[in-house]
Design brief:
41% helix, 152 residues
């Protein structure tokens, strides 16, 4: 557990879930712009400098999700959380995906979260400096990568 530094993009007085969906009222207009261009992530560079995070790794989850990991899934907790990573690239439009389903929380919990765990486990066993560099480049260029870190 650590405190992640971010720009506030949501109204603090909401009773919504931990899963955010594109177009929600709780996302402020300035917050929507920050999120669209991923500028809300910039303050996390402080977390990288402090050593809480790295540039590349699994995105840190809100409390409770790590508790759901079982067996070999828990090995992803060995990785330092990152600003970007292969699962982040695949789900860079996660809020838009969740806006298209009837139950965003359920879709996140049973489809997206397990897929992110699978992708992060693959990354744990195959990461390298060169893969991290390709992930950073893909993030900057807003591109996807395949499992081997190649741009697609």
């Amino acid at each position: 557990m650590f405190t992640m530094v971010k720009f506030r993009s949501m109204d603090m007085n909401h009773s919504g879930s931990t899963v955010s969906v594109a177009g929600e009222k709780r996302i402020t207009p300035l917050g929507a712009m920050l999120r669209k261009y991923k500028l809300d992530e910039l303050p996390e560079l402080w977390n990288v400098l402090k050593g809480d995070m790295s540039f590349v790794g699994p995105r840190p989850d809100v409390p409770g999700y790590a508790d759901q990991l079982q067996g070999d899934e828990r090995e992803v907790l060995k990785l330092r959380p990152g600003i970007t990573g292969p699962a982040s690239l695949k789900y860079r439009n996660e809020e838009e995906i969740l806006a298209t389903v009837d139950n965003p929380q359920q879709y996140n919990d049973f489809i997206i979260f397990p897929d992110k765990v699978r992708i992060n486990r693959y990354y744990l066993h195959h990461y390298s400096f060169w893969m991290d560099l390709r992930i950073i480049i893909a993030t900057v260029l807003n591109k996807k990568i395949n499992y081997d870190g190649e741009l697609i």
